[in-house]
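Re-run with default settings, no changes from the original entry. Doing this only to confirm the output is reproducible before filing.
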Amino acid sequence: MKKVLIDLNIILDFLNKQNFHQEAARLINMCAESVLTGYICAHEVTTLSYFLFKEQKDKNKVVTTISTLFDIFQIIPIDETILKASLLSPITDYEDAVIEVSAVKFNIDYILSRNISDFKLSRIPTYTPEQFFLL
């Protein structure tokens, strides 16, 4: 089974019903149905929690959403080794570097992101969901 690391922007597309939310929903459903093994990084969960609470101002809804993600995705812990290696990454955006280094460490097959140009120096192939569905 393919292992995919999902960037936060795809989860936000799905939750906010933004552009490409149907593709994001298809990808998340594939993870929920164990067609793919889906991963998200721990730091993405805290960032998502911040955005959700800022938007909804309802802690119960935020807890429900985050709990559902825990049921669907495996969480990659972020430790000092990953953070230090990310500082040396050729990927200039530190958050994206953390995602890429995490993907390498956990032998992820693909990173799926809405901003693939941010990952042009990634050692892991990076695609939008639409590109990924064409593989």
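Residues 3 and 107 are 8 Å apart (CA to CA). The chain is about 55% helix and 15% strand.
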